[in-house]
Amino acid sequence: MNLYTTILGSGAALPTGARRCSAQVLNINGFKLLIDCAEGTQDRIRYNHLKLQSIGTIIISHLHGDHFFGLPGLLSTMHLCGRTEPVTIAAPTGAREVIETTFRLTGNHIEYPILWTEMDFDDGEQRVFDNERCSVDAFRILHTVPTYGFRITEKPRGDHSPRVYAYCCDTAYSEAIIPHVHSADLLCLECTFANELGELAEQRQHLTAGQAGRLARLAGVRQLLLSHISARYREPEILLQQASEEFANCLLAADGMRVEITRSPTPPPSQHSGDEQE
Ligand SMILES: [Zn+2]
Ligand SMILES: [Zn+2]
């Protein structure tokens, strides 16, 4: 059974030619889940040969622009391309108001239904999506605005034991996330700064590379994917090196990279998703 994520954007707040802002598409045996939707996500979906209308479920971690500003454009384009199927969105409270206000004030409208789950809780976990392919549980993480991490669990098939993908962007260092991501097969953590900028990371409620590695080690995950890389790092290998000092099995996200989530020995990531088999 296929389980892999295609990185559409691996950069932090400022998009560059090398790294766009946060978005990725998780493919669970053909079912597509869009995780975050920065400005330009619809363009990156096409660039990576993913079919726009095959995405029907979107989960948004928080409403900072580098995770959310692509959503009105994406939803509008889906309408212009003739969509009639519903889109399911789980996002922090406020997302629905932003989208509905944007469409109302700009005179745009969409014909297909949007099924909203708005997240507004501080403690524990809530299941925000569930279908025959996967479940998505959300939990609060520590950032400057209400932000949620996700644990996505594939549904078991036969004797196949379910794999888990966890995603936490953006977050400050907090060991409170450990029980939520414990033993994940792949954990995607933000890694905005190198260790030397620990004070800035604390101020802006982001992680350093070393902190990301430490969290992965304490959580006992199988593999760590470092994303949300600050534009200041033209040669970001330093981040990989610093995270690796805490946790050996980590890799640095790059735009267009496809990362398989598997329990067998780690395959090398591919640099481009290639043509999708629909
Ligand atoms: Zn961000
Ligand atoms: Zn943020």
What's the quaternary structure here? single chain
- Which CATH C-level class is it? Alpha Beta
How many discrete structural domains?
Answer: 1
Shape: globular
Biggest sheet descriptor: 7 strands, mixed
- Structural class comes to alpha/beta
What low-confidence regions span 5 or more consecutive residues with pLDDT below 50? 273-278
Question: What proportion of the residues is helical, as a percent range?
Answer: 10-25%
Instruction: Please write the string of helix (H) and strand (E) elements.
Output: EEEHEHHEHEEEEEHEHHEHEE
- Output the strand order for the largest sheet: 6-5-4-3-2-1-14
Instruction: Assess the beta-strand content as a share of residues.
Output: 25-35%
Distance between the termini: 14 Å
The small molecules bound here are: zinc ion
Could you tell me the mean pLDDT?
94
Q: What gyration radius follows from the Cα positions, in whole Å?
A: 17 Å
Which CATH architecture would you pick? Answer: 4-Layer Sandwich
CATH superfamily caption: Ribonuclease Z/Hydroxyacylglutathione hydrolase-like
The beta-strand count equals: 14
With helices defined by DSSP (H or I, 4 residues minimum), what is the helix count?
A: 8
- Remind me, CATH topology? Metallo-beta-lactamase, Chain A
Structure commentary:
The protein is α/β, with parallel strands linked by helices and 278 residues long. The chain has one domain (3-260): Ribonuclease Z/Hydroxyacylglutathione hydrolase-like (Metallo-beta-lactamase, Chain A). It contains 8 helices and 14 strands. The protein has helices at 41-47, 65-68, 71-80, 95-105, 178-181, 198-204, 209-219, 237-244; strands spanning 3-9, 23-28, 31-37, 55-59, 87-92, 114-119, 125-130, 134-141, 147-154, 164-168, 186-190, 224-227, 250-252, 258-260. Strands 6-5-4-3-2-1-14 form a 7-stranded mixed beta sheet. A 7-stranded mixed beta sheet has the order 7-8-9-10-11-12-13, covered by helices on one side. Helix 7 (209-219) runs parallel beside helix 8 (237-244). The longest helix has 11 residues, at 95-105.
